[in-house]
Design goal:
Layout: H1 17-28, H2 30-37, H3 42-54, H4 60-82, H5 84-96, H6 98-112, H7 119-122, H8 126-133, H9 138-146, H10 150-158, H11 162-174, E1 177-178, H12 180-194, E2 203-204, H13 208-215, H14 220-233, H15 235-245, H16 256-263, H17 268-274, H18 280-288, H19 292-305, H20 310-329
Helix pairs in contact: 1-3, 1-4, 4-5, 5-6, 8-10, 9-11, 10-13, 11-13, 11-14, 13-15, 14-15, 17-19, 17-20
């Protein structure tokens, strides 16, 4: 079946936004285009692909003009991030002229001085949050959840399919400073339905610590499945999260049976080293779970050890934490989760 090709306008001014993107992708090649389109919504990719499919030959002058416009826009965005508002103003003036540049800069400056307000969503229950985020993209959901209380985020994840939940957590963990224009887009996307008001001067949200805090509120089964999903995409990041979920001081939360089982695999010297920076509460917990003979041996080792490097103490603590995680994975101790049912 013959395909009817559309004539491409002779000037950039006549092109639509989608046509410009289509020409840009054709100009930069398949590999570079793939890197760009993988971050786009499926509907956007389909629309751009349609524009590419129906295009006839594009005049080289038009291609050059599209590339030049794209380069100017990129320069403005990069300089805003690295050179401050004044530098961005100069670039925008050169690109769009003084009048239009002033309009853009005023909008940017207004966004840079706003503050975050999520009070309405922070009072929402799980059902409301699920309804709000149901049709949003994972990155949008991750951004919204990153601003909420960890218990609310955990509630949403309990009702989310595992693969989708892992994707959301991965994006939360990779999230650092959120720019005002991104927050504005989210506000416009969900604000009408949720009375959401989000804006910022570049707020630090998310990251591995925030994800670890959320996972600590989930049952061990859900936590494990979500972390496995993160590990499939970024193993190093999943390990960072795991390390933050259970730290050495958290041993004080183990029951006596768990402490006894863990200490069975720990060398006395390593334990004495690890306890150098431990709280009195944890020391009492560990000593209280040991036999008189083992307790005396540990106290003697701690006294004999003398001054040690902090890095050596942290290394010893890290080794014990890894042992604890291994035992949990084997089902021999329980160190995380608040929902596990107990049966006799």
């Amino acid at each position: 079946m013959a395909v009817a090709l559309a004539r491409v306008p002779d000037t950039v001014a006549e092109l639509t936004g989608r046509e410009k993107v289509a020409i840009l992708l054709m100009a930069i090649g398949e590999e570079a285009s793939g890197q760009i389109t993988k971050n786009m919504a499926p509907q956007e990719v389909e629309e751009i692909s349609y524009e590419i499919a129906k295009m006839d030959r594009v005049d080289p002058n038009v291609v050059e003009a599209v590339l030049a416009e794209w380069q100017h826009t990129e320069d403005a965005a990069v300089n805003l991030a690295t050179g401050g508002v004044d530098y961005a103003r100069r670039v925008l003036e050169q690109t769009f002229g003084v009048t239009r540049a002033q309009v853009v800069i005023k909008r940017i400056e207004a966004q840079l001085h706003d503050s975050v307000s999520l009070n309405h969503l922070r009072n929402a229950d799980t059902a409301q949050l699920n309804a709000l985020t149901r049709n949003e993209y994972p990155q949008t959901i991750a951004l919204i959840l990153a601003f909420l209380d960890p218990s609310q985020t955990a509630g949403v994840l309990r009702g989310t399919e595992t693969s989708a939940g892992s994707d959301i957590l991965l994006r939360m963990a990779r999230m650092e400073k959120v720019l005002p224009d991104v927050l504005k887009i989210i506000e416009e996307s969900v604000g009408a339905e949720s009375d959401l008001s989000i804006s910022s001067d570049g707020s630090a949200v998310g990251g591995p610590p925030a994800v670890a805090e959320v996972l600590n509120l989930l049952s061990a089964g859900i936590e494990r499945d979500l972390l496995d999903g993160v590990a499939e995409q970024d193993l190093d990041l999943s390990e960072q999260i795991k390390d933050l979920m259970f730290v050495f001081e958290d041993m004080s939360k183990l029951d006596d049976k768990g402490i006894t089982r863990l200490l069975r695999d720990v060398d006395t010297r390593e334990l004495s080293m690890a306890l150098k920076l431990a709280s009195e509460e944890l020391k009492d917990k560990i000593l209280g779970s040991m036999s008189s003979r083992a307790r005396d041996a540990l106290v003697e080792e701690m006294e004999f050890l003398g001054p040690v490097r902090v890095s050596d103490v942290e290394l010893a603590q890290s080794g014990i934490v890894k042992m604890a995680r291994t035992l949990e994975e084997a089902g021999e101790i329980v160190i995380g989760g608040t929902e596990d049912m107990v049966v006799e």
